[in-house]
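Single-chain item
Fold in token form
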Amino acid sequence: MDGMTQAEYARHRGVSRQAISKLISSGKIPASAFVPGEGGARLINAAAADHALGEGRERVLLDQPEPDDLLASLDSEVVAPRVTPAPVRPEQHEHIAALTKARTETETYRAERARIELEEKRGKLLKVEDVVASMEKCAAVIVRELEALPNFADEIAAAIAKDGAGGARSVLKRVAREVRTQLEQNMRLAAAADRDVEGEPQ
């Protein structure tokens, strides 16, 4: 959040600028609630100041008490509700709308994070690095089997010499079945090895 001047923070709180000055002087808005601004100006971090005053940003005062009344309400643990609040000013309407939007976005974000974490725990989501690692292992198994194909060259040549193209076709079909079977076995072994590693105590 960008810093606010005392006047802007007073409007944010719905009080007078003098009330904010008094809160600063009394230390109720501490030095830690200030941030540097342009030209060396000290600006108020509204979230930090609101926290120091013990109120969330969602709460906006509907009227403007006198400074002494404001200090008394801050010192009291229980503030009596006002029976007839003053009319809400236009700038407060805008501020309330902005706060509502920010809170909605925050809650939506938290809900989405919770949903993603739950689906990940249930195994419905995979981490990118896990998928990449699995693909690399699968590629290594496939490459290993493909590199073994030249071993069938003599058998294929003999089949061609004996039965021509038909003999070569027959040998290649058999080799394809053997390679597919070997790939399936190696993939299962790789998957079992991954499960064993994941099951090991950290």
User: Anything to note?
Assistant: The chain is about 65% helix and 5% strand. The longest strand covers residues 34-36. The helical segments are 6-13, 17-25, 46-52, 67-75, 90-121, 128-147, 153-163, 165-199. The beta strands are 34-36, 42-44.
